[in-house]
Amino acid sequence: MNGIVMLVLSIVVLVGAYLVYGRYLAKKWGVDAKRKTPAMEMEDGVDYVPTSRQVVFGHQFASIAGAGPINGPIQAAIFGWVPVLLWVLVGGIFIGAVQDFGSIFASVRNKGRSIGYIIELYVGKLGKRLFLLFVWLFSILVIAAFADIVAGTFNGFNADLSHNVINGATATTSTAFIAVAVGLGFFIRFRKPTNMVTTLVAILSLVACILFGLAFPLYIQKTLWLYLVFAYIMVASVVPVWALLQPRDFLNSFLLVFMIAAAVVGIFVANPTINLPAFSGFLVNGQQMFPILFVTIACGAVSGFHSLVSSGTASKQIRNEKDMLPIAYGAMLLESLVAVISLICAGAVFSNGALPAGTPPQIFAMAVAGFLAKAGIPTLASNTIITLAISAFALTSLDSVARIGRLSFQELFMDSSTDEEHMGVWQRALTNKYVATILTLLFGYMLSVNGYAKIWPLFGSANQLVSALALCAIAIFLKKTSKKGSMIWIPMFFMLGVTFTALTQIIIVRFTRLISGNFQLLSDGMQLIFAILLVGLGLVIACKSVHTLFFDADKKERKAAA
């Protein structure tokens, strides 16, 4: 298979899906351009802010496009390029994009509230609390996996203890990038510059960071970087969003454009051959294609984390309902395209029956840099910029998920009737944002020391189970508001089957190790506990949701917002 052919065919399929299936969903669900959105009705200048389609699209894509669409396809490439490509395209079009679109639509029709609220509205308060606990556990897994990936990307030493110049330059650039983001946040807030001035300052600052990183690479061991990454997350998850998260998203948009454009141009210039086998078998290296393929490739095909972003922040910024289609459905399809590019990169560097050593982001950056080298662009510069973009997206995901995890933990001990001024000592402590953040990050660190490769199957399973539960909530919402929702049912049951199978396999493997005496208390023990908790919580929520969807005897229709 030729890389250009794969890329062009994928673009045609994804664009066609947006124009046909995306518009079909918008019509069937009754998206109304004349209807006032929560951002317009409840504008408060803080959370509910009517924002242009382009800006919200940038926020949505920067938030959902972490290392997932790069990491998943490269890890799943052991099964061959055909199953990976099919799952990315079919999953992205009919499951992932539908989930993202449905999540933001349900949220907008419920005053911009989260998927957790949708579950509470139709399933009950117990369902919401179980979902919050599930989201907290899931957030810990995301933190663990992505923190290890970022630390590995910054590791300044190779296996033989020689300096890794690319990683060192990326580490320096990323550190300077964070400092620049803080400065830009204060500049925007207090000087209130025009959009043109802000853009010019951002681009010049970004170029300066890259040049600084190339000139002064930073060589620090991965273990220390892991500590520094968690310290950064701790700060980023509690400071005001305008001081760090918003300017980082703004800067990330330029990196995003460059990374995708560079990869596409590089593929057309290099015209790479896909050296991966088309299909390697249903059982490879002891791993079964079902369900491993479908949980390893998450963000490129479907990701439950997206539903939390779509119904958490993006829905509060929608200025017009017609903007939901490009912002949610469109952003997911663009992420599927990134996953396809990642697959092409893996296929291009695959040789002698194996991929090069390194993390998937490093392999991706190596491949794109190799493509661009044929166009005369220095390998070190392009490799550093691509690696920087990937690490920046991973850090953005860490920022977001640490905040989501902290808020979920706090909300576990509060409800609408809680009197914050008269809470008990323990309740006050557990709802404190610093305590909630520390507890969340502590468990994340304990899992991260085992490496992303060991965590990824559990993370992927939990992530896909969040997607299945989000699809349950969307299906219930559509039914209760008398809208066509049958297109949700097959994806919902498929994802439930995939995730419960994967989690059950993880539990069986850990129990087998326990019986055989090959059981590591910290690594295997925590994963076993997490897997059992996730299965238990998921089963209860799923059963309650399916019962509400198909067997609810209560004929009183609680209209959310038809």
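The record above closes out task 2.4. Task 2.5 opens with a second protein, given below.
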Amino acid sequence: MPDTPHPRSTYRIQVRPGFDLDATAGLAGYLADLGVTHLYSAPLLTATPGSQHGYDVVDHRAVNPELGGEGGRQRLVRALRAAGLGLVVDIVPNHAGVARPAANPAWWDVLRRGRASAYADWFDIDWDRGRLLLPVLADTPDALDDLKVVDGELRYHEHRFPIADGTGDGTPREVHDRQHYELVNWRRGDTELTYRRFFAVSDLAGLRVEDPEVFRATHAEILRWAAAGDLDGIRVDHPDGLRDPAGYLARLRAAAPGAWLVVEKILEYGEELPDWPVDGTTGYDALAAAGGLFVDPDAEADFTALDGRLTGRHTSWEDLTHDTKLAAATRLLAAELSRLAALVPELPAEQVRPALAELAACFPVYRGYPPEGARHLAAARAEAGRRRPDLTTVLDAVTARLRDPDHELAARFPQLSGAVMAKGVEDTAYYRWSRFVALNEVGGSPAHFGVAPAEFHRFAAARQVRWPASMTTLSTHDTKRGEDIRARLAVLSELPGRWAERVADWMSRAPLADPAFAHLLWQTAVGAWPIERERLHAYAEKAAREASASTSWADPDPAFEHELHALVDRMYDDPELHAQLTAFADEITPAGWSNSLGQKLVQLAMPGVPDTYQGTELWENSLVDPDNRRPVDFAVRRDLLARLDAGWRPAVAADGAAKLLVVSRTLRLRRDRPELFTGYRPVPAQGPAGAHAVAFDRGGAVAVATRLPLRLARAGGWGDTTLAISGNSVTDVFTGRVYSGSELLMHDLLSTYPVALLAPTDSVEAAA
């Protein structure tokens, strides 16, 4: 871990057309008042026109003009500096946007000039396989009949392509056949492609940033900002897609030695971040640990049994993910699989392909890195051999090449295994395995039902030692459900019997042909309720297509989707169903609020650099993107923060203001008194309800949260449970109450809110 300055907290903004750099600059005062120290921005370089996310960069030389261009960036920096804030920017080294070739000068030149292009080495293209295949044609045999030559370009409906010099005579079909590229059926993108993609997205072409020249060209603008002092931190998108992540990060660290550097590395349960020259991850590991604290592990057997009753079968997470990963490798990523199989020409491709696919399906993490990678490869080989003993000989041969660091297969296979994990698990299995969807989150482990306090404390203490500047988060633009939805769903783990009765009744009265997906949908509805009808319709359709069980993106099933949308409509239009759904959501919402405040305090106060995703300082019920990129009403948040600063202490249910109180007071204390957050020590509660408290001392600041609030209430509350603290006088920064003595009664400490943040009274007075 490098010794670099780092933010004390960040606030993520989805800068986009419609909320540009000037709109973002207008938030500087609010963010400073909130207590954050750095704005954390979505990618800012020029993206595909109209892009709402910025991860499809088309020109690395300039700020996106749709965001305000270079002038907008400079105005943002000035506004941030005037408010005492820094800037962290997201960058995208793995891929570039190619959906609109004319918008990407480098890609356009490659299409026009082929291997002779000065940019031919920018993109990870397999030139030896012939023309560059572009999967844009309709799935009809006569699609090429719609080609036209217009203004010296080849046109296919809205798509524009360049024409190589001296090749523009003849019919459009004849012109097409002379180009360095070939337009093909869009379905061939998954089975036969000549360039590496981001996952299975043919509109995002892989970059070769391992080439020093490509690195310099694609990073010059970002590094110019850093050298000028305009940039304090860098978030690296999807390093697992790179050929050599360790080498890339070493080069980036050398080019920006003073920057806070975090990577979007998704770690599996128990996996450690490689010893890279970075400050940590973007926080999915912390998300899983903090959120898991509020799930009751004792409910696992009940939910497993319920899943079996609802679906009529027993679903093994291990078998499900193996099958979804294998399908991803052999279908969605078949083109990448074929490219890898060709690297073992001495063996028949019909044997190498299934062996590589099986190894990828059995690989226990996204990808292996030395030296741990050898252990992961051995585990994959053993499991692949168990599942496919008929492939023993070829598995041994392929594994031997994967162990050879000088073999091209060893360099490229990790790029496949990471994509297989992402598409097979995150984007498929998470939508199929509906046992308890609060756990189906990026970086999570649905097979591990909850996190015990002792496990959390071990995780946090280790993090303080090794990665104290790693990011923590609860929501991102990639999370499947917002943090407050997951917090409310965690309440179901405290009443598994009641939930089983409710959902079984609803599913019997409003059946769906896919009962597993129906269970996922009912859980999501309860977690997000009340939610606008059109948002739930959009979520249901996307989630069902991602699951690829009863419908899919490639082959939508109109009959099933009609049935699915009819079910969503019944939630709103059937008076009895609507009333019961509303009543049940209302019943679990107060405990959900308790969980929301608890996990938020834990995330903000635990070791690391806490990030707050835009809007989540209030109650927030976002679902998967694009739902979680919806506009945020910052005027409401400004007004509520001003009322809090005027002395208002809201009830927990008051428009999310209690969450804003927790966020602002915790961030301000971290900003103003950082010396109180330099260690980590569990603080056990003593007494009959001790298991319902999670508390830790960060070196002067003590965070206290309530877990499993329904069970606590059923047991009669805190009783005489106490919390031992050090120091003569402490103040709860949320209520302003001062406590003296070495033991505090929990029922007194948490009488106003289910959380408390204690700090030495003199430090609170000094900060105020």
